[in-house]
């Protein structure tokens, strides 16, 4: 339960950050997708359910406050959370390129779905133009910001895990935790 | 939840995912069909989130001011040198101009350059947050129905059209700007009185222009002509400056002219806007259209 309350506040904070502060420091009119970063991270680090929970919250906040129809963003974000629950199995180590690949692929998937749901349905076809003007810049920005958020998340995760405050059954760093347990036993 | 934990029965994520999707589709249909009934929910959530957004936004303003400050510092030193030289030239010119000034004032009265829309009742509002993604260009202002704002009111800033109020809640409302991809405004050229359509385009936003379409081929338009909102629009009040035309060319079909429009408002740093609290009286027309 504690985990979900924590996730709620982190999501809310990211939402506030994205809609206010980041808009002011946008580079060439493009801002990183913080909601995507936090959804991806939760799915990636903790599992499908957690990813979907955060995705649901992110989508709900955006839909209720900014969109006419409630539901489309929720589906998009939940899908991202769900996919990343699977992606978790692919990575075991704290590699440099992991966040780069994860955030890059996720941002492209998310924006393609977004394009189909909101733009293709209105008859705006030129996908390539949108791809190079919106998706690629947003992806690179998201990767850069996501990299630092990822490192921060790992630090926080380890800290809470050692104190035993943050119950995680299976984490990305399964190997590490096993080593910890062994060392303690000896 | 507790029961599940005790008896060790957990629902598979797959089914939760399918459940969420079905829930979303139902919610989507309901919220689209009964958009009025969702407003209290939106109000409740917004009244919780809004104060936080306001608070954090003030931090954002400080940051952007600091960035601007550093940016301008470098330029200021360069400018200072240039300006000192200019001051000497200008003070000479000034004396000449002083003489012409009296003449000019009389001309101004003749031309009546005062814009029509100075007479509209207006309410000032602050931009508190933006849409938060890169696909749309709408923003939220801190005035709502409690301040007398209602749907379809026009929003202006710097003497030009900014957009239209699309969603109103108790103490905030959402404005779709004219550079948004979904926005279409019918306009008129001030000089030639030809009509045209100004539509926002996501692919042209970076070059700072909007699309200008449906201009009849026999119209005489010069580069830089003013485009204002037209009488025939059913949502926009007439005579509000939209921008200046550019690069007018023949369409592929040779039936209409198309071109680009440079908006009169700088959309980069929109902080304060004015909402015209007068809705164009076209309720009957809307009923027919719907």
Provide the CATH topology of chain A.
Answer: Arp2/3 complex 21 kDa subunit ARPC3
CATH architecture of the domain at 121-279 in chain B: Beta Barrel
What count of domains describes the coordinates of chain A? 1
CATH architecture of chain A: Orthogonal Bundle
Order of helical and strand elements of chain B: HHHEEEEEEEEEEEEH
Fraction in beta strands of chain B: 25-35%
Apparent shape of chain A: globular
Please write the CATH class name of the domain at 121-279 in chain B.
Answer: Mainly Beta
H/E series of chain A: HHHHHHH
Mean pLDDT of chain A: 78
Going by helix content, strand content and strand pairing, the class of chain A is mainly alpha
**Oligomeric status of the shown chains?**
heterodimer
Task: Report the radius of gyration of chain B as a whole number of Å.
Answer: 25 Å
Can you walk me through this structure?
- Chain A has helices at residues 2-24, 34-46, 48-66, 72-87, 97-119, 127-163, 174-185.
- By secondary structure, chain A is mainly alpha-helical.
- Chain A has a single domain (2-22, 31-166), classed as Arp2/3 complex 21 kDa subunit ARPC3 (Orthogonal Bundle).
- Chain A is globular.
- Residues 165-173 of chain A have low confidence and may be disordered.
- Chain B has a domain at 121-279: Rod shape-determining protein MreC, domain 1 (Thrombin, subunit H), CATH 2.40.10.
- Chain B has helices at 2-7, 13-33, 35-111, 283-289, and strands spanning 122-130, 138-141, 154-157, 160-168, 173-177, 184-189, 195-199, 210-216, 226-229, 241-250, 256-263, 272-276.
- A six-stranded antiparallel barrel of chain B has the order 1-2-5-4-3-12. A six-stranded antiparallel β-barrel of chain B has the order 6-7-8-11-10-9.
- In chain B, a hairpin with a 4-residue loop joins strand 4 and strand 5.
- The interface between A and B is large, with 54 and 49 residues.
């Amino acid at each position: 339960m504690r985990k979900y309350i924590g996730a709620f506040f982190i999501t809310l904070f990211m939402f506030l950050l994205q809609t206010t502060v980041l808009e002011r420091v946008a580079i060439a009119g493009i801002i990183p997708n913080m909601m995507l970063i936090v959804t991806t991270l939760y799915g990636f680090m903790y599992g499908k359910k957690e990813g979907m929970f955060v995705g649901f919250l992110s989508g709900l906040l955006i839909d209720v406050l900014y969109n006419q129809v409630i539901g489309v963003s929720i589906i998009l974000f939940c899908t991202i959370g769900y996919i990343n629950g699977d992606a978790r199995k692919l990575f075991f180590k704290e590699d440099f390129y992991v966040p780069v690949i994860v955030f890059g692929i996720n941002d492209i998937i998310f924006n393609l779905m977004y394009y189909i749901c909101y733009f293709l349905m209105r008859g705006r076809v030129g996908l390539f133009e949108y791809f190079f003007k919106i998706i690629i810049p947003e992806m690179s920005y998201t990767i850069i910001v996501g990299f630092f958020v990822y490192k921060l998340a790992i630090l926080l995760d380890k800290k809470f895990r050692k104190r035993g405050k943050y119950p995680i059954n299976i984490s990305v760093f399964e190997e590490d935790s096993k080593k910890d347990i062994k060392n303690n036993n000896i | 939840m507790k029961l599940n934990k005790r008896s060790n029965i957990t629902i598979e994520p797959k089914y939760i995912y399918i459940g969420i999707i079905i829930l979303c589709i139902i919610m989507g249909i309901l919220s689209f069909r009964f958009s009025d009934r969702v407003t209290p929910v939106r109000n409740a959530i917004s009244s919780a989130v809004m104060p936080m957004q306001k608070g954090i936004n003030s931090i954002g303003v400080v940051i952007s001011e600091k960035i601007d400050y550093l940016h301008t510092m470098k330029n200021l030193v360069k400018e200072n040198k240039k300006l000192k030289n200019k001051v000497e030239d200008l003070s000479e010119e000034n004396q000449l101009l002083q003489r012409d000034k009296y003449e000019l004032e009389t001309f101004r009265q003749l031309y009546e350059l005062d814009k029509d829309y100075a007479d509209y009742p207006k309410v000032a509002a602050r931009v508190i947050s933006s849409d938060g993604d890169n696909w749309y260009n709408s923003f939220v202002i801190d005035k709502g129905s409690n301040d007398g704002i209602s749907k379809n009111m026009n929003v202006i800033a710097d003497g030009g059209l900014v957009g239209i109020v699309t969603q109103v809640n108790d103490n905030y409302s959402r404005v779709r700007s004219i550079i948004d991809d979904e926005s279409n405004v019918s306009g008129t050229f001030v000089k030639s009185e030809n009509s045209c359509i100004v539509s926002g385009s996501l692919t042209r936003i970076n070059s700072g222009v909007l699309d200008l379409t449906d201009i009849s081929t026999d119209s005489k338009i010069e580069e830089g002509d003013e485009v204002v909102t037209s009488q025939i629009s059913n949502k926009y009040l007439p005579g509000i400056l939209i921008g200046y035309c550019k690069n007018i060319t023949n369409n592929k079909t040779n039936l209409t002219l198309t071109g680009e429009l440079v908006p009169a408002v700088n959309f980069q740093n929109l902080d304060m806007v004015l909402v015209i609290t007068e809705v164009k009286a076209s309720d009957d027309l809307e009923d027919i259209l719907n």
